[in-house]
Write a structure and sequence with these properties.
Layout (H helix, E strand, L loop, with lengths): L2 H8 L6 E3 L11 H5 L6 E3 L12 H7 L2 H23 L1 H16 L2
Antiparallel strand pairs: 1-2
Length: 107
């Protein structure tokens, strides 16, 4: 089940990068702690060209660019869509929970 992919496709957002539970995130996060307790999703959208280093002045400037604003809006659309669907579709929430329980149990 991948409702995140469905949301990205629905809004025509092809460049979102999802990070799986055991994929390296490329940064320090609390994602592992959170995802061991609740179903979770981490994804990113590019706000700068790939050759711009994160946490650099150039990257900070890029976050305020039209592309950075578009990434912010697209991330908001994805999160809103997922939140709405999980709240409005109890059977979907139950399936996400069941899928998560399989992952954390190692099955």
């Amino acid at each position: 089940m991948d409702i995140a992919d469905e949301a990205m496709k629905e809004f025509g957002i092809p460049n979102a990068k999802k990070v799986g539970p055991w994929d390296p995130a490329g940064a320090s996060t609390d994602f592992g702690t959170a995802s061991s307790q609740i179903p979770a999703l981490i994804f990113g959208l590019p706000v700068a060209p790939a050759d711009v280093a994160g946490h650099s002045r150039e990257y900070a400037i890029a976050t305020k660019s039209p592309e950075g604003n578009e990434a912010l809006i697209n991330a908001s659309k994805i999160m809103a869509c997922l939140g709405y669907r999980l709240a409005a579709e109890p059977e979907l929430l139950a399936q996400v929970r069941a899928d998560w329980e399989k992952v954390v149990s190692g099955n």
